[in-house]
Specification:
Helix content: 10-25%
Largest sheet: 4 strands, parallel
Strand order of the largest sheet: 2-1-3-4
Distance between the termini: 49 Å
Number of strands: 4
Number of helices: 2
Strand content: 15-25%
Shape: globular
Structural class: alpha/beta
Radius of gyration: 14 Å
């Protein structure tokens, strides 16, 4: 009896040149540590999160990259809008300022 690992899609922002990317490094380490339990895929937004049109295009692209479990993090929380809700996890960072 073989057991297949669940597929997890980690949705992350497209990097901006010259900015800190510690968030991406944290989730890279997480994917490495969980590799024995999950088949993970990194899904980078096609566009930098800037302006209405680029954010809309990122949101429209997200559903085509879904897996068994979807995890959205970073400043692209809007990518979650069109993903399957019961199969998605949304991590919101830096809420302290709120």
């Amino acid at each position: 009896m073989s057991s297949t690992k669940p597929r997890v899609a980690f949705f992350q922002r497209k990097r901006r040149k010259g900015q800190n990317h510690s968030l991406e490094q944290i989730f890279e380490a997480l994917r490495d540590r969980l590799s024995h339990r999950f088949d993970s895929t990194l899904v980078l937004s096609p566009f930098v999160s800037s302006g209405v049109v680029k954010r809309l295009l990122n949101t429209l692209a997200a559903p085509f990259n879904q897996a068994d479990i979807n995890h959205v993090t970073g400043d692209i929380n809007y990518d979650n809008l069109l993903l399957r809700k019961k199969k998605s996890v949304l991590t919101i960072h830096d809420c302290g300022v709120l």
